[in-house]
Write a structure and sequence with these properties.
Layout (H helix, E strand, L loop, with lengths): L2 H14 L12 E5 L6 H17 L3 E5 L6 H8 L7 E6 H9 L7 H4 L1 E15 L8 H10 L5 E4 L5 H13 L4 E4 L3 H9 L5 E5 H9 L4 E5 L25 E8 L5 H16 L1 H9 L3 E5 L1 H22 L5
Parallel strand pairs: 1-2, 1-3, 5-6, 5-7
Antiparallel strand pairs: 3-9, 4-7, 4-8, 4-9, 4-10
Helix pairs in contact: 1-10, 2-10, 4-12, 7-12
């Protein structure tokens, strides 16, 4: 959908709907981020928030409420007034949390009202150059030859990068040794030195290392090839159809939001994400614009919940 069509839809919405959408917004909107300032989620929220404010002609304030793998922020928004002035930046972390502990974590698809997905950070599978692997089939072959001999680094247990590797193991039946670190940056030295074998990692953080030959890229983990590495085939293209793992994010509101306000927010958020300058700013951060509206975003969250629940069950994972 083009920006012109989105803005035209927004104009028509203003002409055909009744209050409160006609007067919304008349004061600043808050976007609650469940992670600390300067995190990838925080950066995405600030970029889209700035553009959203320009479109709606109102201030957009980012508030960080970290804790419990972003659950603190999610619960804060879930109990806020459903008036459109408090939004939550939900991510794949929320789906993983819910899949692991559905009795204590919010389901984004039902506990909040999904408004629009804004983007995804695509990942790649990389290996240390000393490993005799150039394709997904090579990795599978090596892992099956000596179960547990291949080690994979992650940004920590239960993170999206850890779960990407567990999804890979679930789909292929291989056994690898998990070596968790406190973040991707902390994991990189051991991977570069060959003390760990491989890692699923955001493409933007390793593209220069791959170009320099310090790491070898095996596959992209998303549904399509990456703009950063257009010649790199996906995992799905290499024999695992339907394989997809990315760090997605989108905006949600408290349940009970008036339909006309939700629609106005949806149109405005999609317009913000689709704007050329936003695409450029996202690209610098390694984010690809993936614009899904209320219906499609809700359906996608449900698919993600089910996918990670299956992986956790199949792999017998205990994520504390």
């Amino acid at each position: 959908m083009t920006i012109k069509k989105l803005l035209a839809g927004m104009l028509m919405l203003g002409l055909t709907t009744a209050a409160p959408a006609q007067t919304f917004p008349d004061h600043p909107i808050r976007i609650i981020v469940g992670f600390r300032a300067a995190s990838a989620s925080d950066v995405a929220a600030r970029l889209v928030g700035q553009k959203l404010g320009e479109i709606l002609k109102v201030g957009v304030v980012i508030e960080n409420k970290p804790g419990a793998s972003s659950e603190v922020g999610a619960r804060y928004v879930a109990t806020s007034a459903p008036d459109g002035y408090t939004l939550y930046l939900g991510t794949v972390a929320n789906s993983i949390n819910y899949a692991a502990k559905s009795d204590s974590f919010i389901d984004l698809a039902t506990g909040l009202a999904p408004i629009a997905e804004i983007g995804e950070v695509p990942n790649v599978l990389v290996v240390t150059p000393s490993l005799d692997a150039h394709t997904v089939a090579d990795v599978i072959r090596l892992a099956k030859a000596k179960p547990g001999a291949l080690s994979y680094a992650s940004a920590g247990a239960g993170t999206a990068l850890h779960m990407a590797a567990e999804l890979f193991s679930s789909r292929t039946g291989v056994t690898m040794l998990h070596v968790p670190y406190q973040g991707s940056a902390a994991a990189m030295p051991d991977l570069l030195e060959g003390r760990t074998s491989l890692m699923f990692v955001p493409a933007s953080t390793v593209v220069d290392l791959v170009k320099a030959g310090k790491l070898r890229a095996i596959a992209a983990t998303g549904s399509h090839r990456l703009a950063l590495m257009p010649d790199l085939p996906t995992v799905a293209e290499q024999g695992l159809p339907g394989f997809e793992s990315s760090v997605w994010s989108g905006l949600l509101a408290p349940n009970g939001l008036p339909a006309d306000v939700a629609k106005k927010l949806e149109i405005s958020i999609l317009a913000a994400a689709a704007s050329p300058d936003m695409k450029d700013k996202f690209a610098v951060q390694g984010i690809e614009v993936i614009a899904r509206g209320q219906k499609d975003f809700t359906a996608y969250i449900k698919v993600e919940n089910d996918k990670w629940a299956k992986v956790i069950k199949d792999r017998g994972l205990k994520l504390d």
